[in-house]
Every structure is written in structure tokens, then in C-alpha cells.
Automatic annotation (TrEMBL):
UniProt entry keywords in alphabetical sequence: NADP, Oxidoreductase
Pfam family, one: RibD_C
Pathway where this protein functions: Cofactor biosynthesis; riboflavin biosynthesis
Domain of life: Bacteria
UniProt lineage: Bacteria, Pseudomonadati, Pseudomonadota, Alphaproteobacteria, Rhodobacterales
Residue ranges annotated for the Bacterial bifunctional deaminase-reductase C-terminal domain, each copy included: 23-198
Name of the protein in question: Riboflavin-specific deaminase C-terminal domain-containing protein
Gene Ontology molecular functions: 5-amino-6-(5-phosphoribosylamino)uracil reductase activity
GO biological process: riboflavin biosynthetic process
Amino acid sequence: MNYAPAEALLPLMPEAGETRSVVVAQLGQTLDGRIATVTGASKYINGYQALDHLHRLRAHVDAVLVGVSTVVADDPRLTVRRVDGKHPARVVIDPNGRLPADWGGLSDGAAPVYVITRPDLTPPPPAIAVPLEPEAGGFAPDAIVAALHALGLRRILVEGGADTLARFLDAGAVDLLHVLVAPMILGSGKEGFRLAPVDSLDEALRPVTRVHAFEDGDVLFTCDLRRSWQRD
């Protein structure tokens, strides 16, 4: 593993292609892999420098994508208010029409809101519907990425929640993963990763990874899922 300044890791994001958007994902967790307590409390597991890094990531993408459960639970704005830069479009995966009409992201005017939803559902205004046919268990990540690419959204940040991130990872739809690990141990609570089980270590993901330690204690792992390392 190589060590690099946090600012040097942002340009490592791959360039978007003509036929497919590039997908970056991020997850903030504790040392023992938890993203929230048993009651759902998660603000703030990661420190301020990790939050700054997340906002820098947002400033480097065209769209931030979350599941509707994240919107309902956390009421996030998904903006870059902690750093300089342009606010990305907000994309919400909402297969069953659960997006609250009073969500602040619909009224702040910071950036457009797109809602991935079934063709028979209409999201609350001014959100723009992106209709997709669902598959078993939800929308296919590759279909979501293709639909966003068609809208001109070429760099996508998958920010949450854990179930949405797991679906994208299981589908092989993530190019670069940023994992922010806080020096904290909960011992219980919601897990950050719950992927499809593998039978052997040969099936495990082994991304080429760089590491950066922030001054306030968090450690950032940037994992290039397009490239794998092999043990000698």
C-alpha cells in the first residue's frame, strides 16, 4: 500500500467514458466496521477532516446518489457547503414513492434532484423522475448508471446507505471506493458492508489501495476496484 496526501487522491478518480459514467463510492465507519449504533445514531462517527474530504468528493462529481431510506433517516442536503465548488445534482433511488415532499433538498435550490423510480410513480416537485423498470430486489445498478449517463451525469458518487452501496459493489458497478475509518469501537450496531457471501479467499475483492491518515485521527483508504493486487 502507498501513502499519499489526501488532496493527491482526488485526481486519481478515473475519467468518465463515452459510453459509461465513472462511479465512486464512499463509506464512513468505525474500526470494527460499524456505521451507526443499534439506535441508528451516526452523527458524527467520522471527524471534521473526513467530512471535508467527503465534501471535496462531492465537488468533483456531477451527481451524488443515495437511497431514499438515507433521505428519510438523515435529511441530508448532499451539498459542498464545507468546501469551495459546485453543488452536484442529487439523485435518490426511490422504488416505492417514499421521498418526503418536505425534504430540504427539494426546496433549497442548490442543485437539481433526480429520482430513480418506477414508471407508474411521480416524485414530489420539483424533482425530475428517471423511470426504470425494477428487477427482483430493486433497480439494477448498471441500469441506474446508464440512465444517469444519458442525462449527462458522467461522474457519480454513491454515498449511501449501506444497502445501496452493497448492491453497487455486488454488481461490480463501482470503480473507486473511499473508506473513511474513525478511531472508534462500537462493538454493536449497523454494519458498513454486507455483501453476497464468498466461499474462498480467491473470490474476495483485492483492490489496489492507497492510505492517508488525517491529523484528527481518521484514516482514509482509497480502493481502486478496477485493479487487484496479488499476494506473492
